[in-house]
Amino acid sequence: MRRRGAGVPRDAVHHPVFARFYAGFSVAADSGAGIAAHRDELLAGLSGRIIEIGAGNGLNFAHYPSAVSEVVAIEPERTLRALALQSAGRAGVPVDVVPGAAEALPVKSEAFDGAVCSLVLCSVRDLPRSLAELMRVLRPGGELRFFEHCQAQSKGLARLQRVVDRTVWPLLFGGCHTARDTVAEIGAAGFELGVYRRLRIPERGIQVPASPCVLGVARRPFTGDRPT
Q1: What kind and span of H or E run contains 38?
Q2: Measured CA distances, 189 to 6, 138, 193, 221 (Å)
Q3: CATH no. for 16-219
Q4: Average pLDDT, stretch 54-79?
């Protein structure tokens, strides 16, 4: 069923210090910042075979609906992948945790009914290539569910995002780039954008470069050329 993507090593990402920080911070944020509710919204209504890229420590796994028959969870960072394996054992649906990178997914084309990316497109090294891979592995009409950091609509915060993205932020936070225009990139990759909404995390209080987020759905079109 799977094939190894060319040009990307088995452990293309290795951020052990950030991984340990993220493992604790993300669990606290699920309850404290309300992210768990966003995960429910992100995954509601999915069914069939799903691929999730950048699965991290597997916090999405507990939120997949029972209609999902299998989740193939791609995680390139070995520390987070080990934690995702533990989460997979507690999930209510079958989850297969696999090493790999978003830019070269180790799976066959048109093999999935849905794809999930959750707080990961900000950190992939090549965003257009990663989105092209998601297009490739989805069947025609398959859904892409996304919950991602995005470019701020406030000019002041957007300016701050651009500054920190060029300096310290990616170094401190596992390659994260907060100023990416995620929605525009998904559309440019050939996906049909569905309903999406912008939100802030946390909803109240001080906003940081990673606060602006977008949650929504897009689809691989039925028409047009098949991906190669």
Answers
A1: helix 35-43
A2: 20, 13, 11, 11
A3: 3.40.50.150
A4: 96
